[in-house]
């Protein structure tokens, strides 16, 4: 059983593991019997494992890996692969492409980037990126370093990589991970999720760092923060937060991403970092409704305050080990909420929803030029999960965003239940 899933997967009976049983599980003592009874079947239920035997075997190897995780070994260079090339994926490619050259002792200088191929005016996007060193569709006007290579074949992009950066809209992650299975080594590879979303199946919910760990058997950190991609790409000062499982990984990711204008804090809270990134998108939709109604700054500030409390309450209720201070002290928490409620795509589309009355899928196409709206989908997923758990009424802002987006509730009712 993956120890990380033990932290975050839930059953209808509530949290799977207490802190004490989790500690024992991580040290291997009660692992087999506990996994057999509860955790392995949950993985199978969520579709991440085809059998309990497979889940138990994976968990055994995860526990062994973690026991040795912080033991320094050889200092081979990390070989990076970026999986994703959208707006944030391209900004990260720019940053990482530059940084591997700054740290030649730590990182291989070649940075392959998986690109979901498409044609732009009769030319392949990969061809344009590799010849002009610019992602003209998703990050126009920003030059990528020459050592970033766009690759349309997923297996080729990750070939030989020891450190995988997942940066795709969340709806594509399960299928990408399934495509990757068997294509990366069983040992020695680590990953980081830059994805802002959650994976919901009935009464179960998981962060994508856990989905990636489970499907690929790699240790997965998470990065999230107040990071509007265009601003980061232009070099404007920003901060971000990396949540790590093993400090040694957190330090490595910090070295890879940090530069003088992009500051990286590392903390021991993968779930908190991931959930802040996912749930702030729902609050940003509410903020956009408020903007569309022309309600002004006081209303938006109130929505943000209430939204932050629901984000924290939800995370603490359904995930083990989340740190409350992540929500108020880290870039992933309050800072990301602020930037997204003022400058993000979710806010923008929700404002247009109120002003034009057009459906969100139409607005996504018209306003985002292929980029993906995450908050409306996350509002639906969170609502379905809360409904399955009988907890919808406890989260009135999340509920109202869902009802406006999916049940034709008047946007002016956004504060009616608060
Ligand atoms: N853009 C930002 O400012 C920003 C900042 C921080 C975090 N994020 C998060 O990073 C993640 C990735 O966002 P983004 O902005 O890079 O992406 P994006 O919104 O620009 O999404 C478009 C990407 O999805 C790809 N795509 C389309 N169909 C696909 C398919 N069937 N399979 C695989 N890929 C497909 C496209 O090729 C493109 O690369 C999201 O979870 C987002 O919330 C975004
Ligand atoms: O444009 P959004 O709303 O997807 O938000 C972008 C980033 O997540 C902000 O940190």
Automatic annotation (TrEMBL):
It catalyses: sn-glycerol 3-phosphate + NAD(+) = dihydroxyacetone phosphate + NADH + H(+). InterPro entries: 6-PGluconate_DH-like_C_sf (IPR008927), 6PGD_dom2 (IPR013328), G3P_DH_NAD-dep (IPR006168), G3P_DH_NAD-dep_C (IPR006109), G3P_DH_NAD-dep_euk (IPR017751), G3P_DH_NAD-dep_N (IPR011128), NAD(P)-bd_dom_sf (IPR036291). GO terms for biological process: carbohydrate metabolic process; glycerol-3-phosphate catabolic process. Pfam families: NAD_Gly3P_dh_C (PF07479), NAD_Gly3P_dh_N (PF01210). The keyword Oxidoreductase applies. Keywords: NAD, Oxidoreductase. Its EC number is 1.1.1.8. One of its GO terms (molecular function) is protein homodimerization activity. One of its GO terms (cellular component) is cytosol. It comes from the Eukaryota. Residues 269-414 form the Glycerol-3-phosphate dehydrogenase NAD-dependent C-terminal domain. Residues 79-246 form the Glycerol-3-phosphate dehydrogenase NAD-dependent N-terminal domain. Belongs to the NAD-dependent glycerol-3-phosphate dehydrogenase family. PANTHER family: GLYCEROL-3-PHOSPHATE DEHYDROGENASE, GLYCEROL-3-PHOSPHATE DEHYDROGENASE [NAD(+)]-RELATED. This is Glycerol-3-phosphate dehydrogenase [NAD(+)]. It comes from Mixia osmundae (strain CBS 9802 / IAM 14324 / JCM 22182 / KY 12970). The lineage of its organism: Eukaryota, Fungi, Dikarya, Basidiomycota, Pucciniomycotina. The gene is Mo06700.
């Amino acid at each position: 059983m993956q120890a990380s899933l033990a932290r975050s997967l839930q059953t209808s009976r509530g949290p799977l593991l207490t802190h004490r049983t989790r500690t024992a599980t991580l040290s291997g003592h009660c692992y087999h019997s506990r996994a057999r009874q509860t955790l392995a079947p949950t993985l199978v239920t969520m579709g991440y494992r085809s059998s309990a035997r497979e889940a138990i075997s994976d968990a055994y190897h995860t526990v062994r890996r973690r026991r040795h995780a912080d033991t320094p070994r050889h200092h081979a260079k990390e070989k990076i692969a970026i999986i994703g090339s959208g707006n944030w994926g391209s900004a990260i490619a720019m940053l990482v492409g530059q940084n591997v050259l700054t740290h030649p002792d730590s990182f291989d200088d070649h940075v392959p980037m998986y690109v979901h191929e498409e044609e732009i005016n009769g030319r392949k996007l990969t061809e344009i990126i590799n010849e002009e060193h610019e992602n003209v569709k998703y990050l126009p006007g920003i030059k990528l370093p020459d050592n970033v290579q766009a690759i349309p074949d997923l297996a080729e992009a990750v070939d030989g990589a020891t450190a995988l950066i997942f940066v795709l809209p969340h709806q594509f992650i399960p299928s990408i991970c399934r495509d990757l299975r068997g294509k990366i080594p069983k040992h020695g590879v680590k990953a980081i999720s830059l994805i802002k979303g959650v994976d919901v199946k009935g009464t179960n919910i998981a962060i994508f760092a856990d989905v990636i760990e489970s499907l690929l058997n790699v240790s997965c950190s998470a990065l999230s923060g107040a990071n509007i991609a265009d601003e980061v790409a232009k070099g404007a000062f920003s901060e971000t937060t990396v949540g790590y499982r093993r400090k040694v990984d957190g330090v490595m990711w910090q070295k890879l991403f940090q530069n003088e204008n992009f500051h990286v804090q590392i903390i021991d809270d993968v779930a908190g970092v991931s959930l802040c990134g996912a749930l702030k998108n729902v609050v940003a939709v509410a903020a956009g409704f408020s903007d569309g109604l022309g309600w002004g700054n006081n209303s938006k500030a109130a929505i943000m305050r209430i939204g932050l409390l629901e984000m924290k309450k939800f995370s603490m209720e359904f995930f083990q080990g989340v740190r409350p201070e992540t929500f108020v002290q880290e870039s992933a928490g309050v800072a990301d909420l602020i930037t997204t409620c003022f400058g993000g795509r979710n806010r923008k589309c929700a404002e247009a929803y109120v002003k034009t009355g057009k459906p969100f899928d139409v607005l996504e196409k018209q306003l985002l030029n292929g980029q993906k709206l995450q908050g409306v989908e996350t509002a639906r997923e969170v609502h379905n999960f809360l409904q399955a758990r009988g907890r919808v009424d406890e989260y009135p802002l999340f509920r109202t965003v869902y009802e406006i987006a999916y049940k034709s509730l008047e946007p002016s009712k956004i504060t009616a239940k608060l």
